[in-house]
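so the lab meeting is tmrw and i was supposed to have these ready like two days ago... anyway. pasting both below. for each one the top line is the aa sequence and the line under it is the structure tokens. i havent really looked at them closely yet so no promises
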Amino acid sequence: MSAQAATRRIRAAIRTRYALLPYLYTLFRAAHAEGLPIMRPLAFEFPGEGWALGVDDAFLLGPALLVAPVLEPGAAERRLRLPAPGPWYSAASGEAAAPGERALAVGMDDVPAFLRGGCILPLKARGRAVCGGAALRAPERAAEAVR
């Protein structure tokens, strides 16, 4: 991988992290006040789904965002099972996805993530500056998954 490609991927990851800051702060507050974990196994939110106990390659970031990282080097496909009830929405495309098992085409730049139906995910809009006052004044937006 070239240095430019690596830099592009790192910048994209940092932008995603900054966009998720309002949601992360909300999760940190809930962790402090109620003791809820920020990263959750699927069985935590879906205790009635027996299969979720065995899932060790996907997790929920709070109650709203299911993340299924690609763990195999050079993988072109990622198998994932979305818990019921649905629908779920692709964080990348916004397309609705019904609960159940699926195979996702993935590349080196992909981290499959799905927004749970009925949830609102507060996001920070990308500002011109990464730090300082300009970033703090950037307007917030919300990705909303409506049933």
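ok protien two:
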Amino acid sequence: MKPGALYAVSLYDLYKKDLSEAAMVYLDEEKGMLTPATLADVTGDGVADVVLASFDEAVVALDGASFRYGGA
């Protein structure tokens, strides 16, 4: 696992403390995340999207269905 990264893991694996299947969905190599991620349906598709802020003053939104980043 890399510092400054956000990972997706199943709730069951998290419960078991097994992060071997965790998938990195976002990496900020400069400074990392400022706050824990928040879930909100930003796209209006009924799926909670992932919203987070980084130390470099960026606000990032990831599509909750695909974890794709649509930022500039």
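from a quick look at the 2nd one: Residues 41 and 48 are 4 Å apart (CA to CA). The chain has a mean pLDDT of 86. will dig more after coffe
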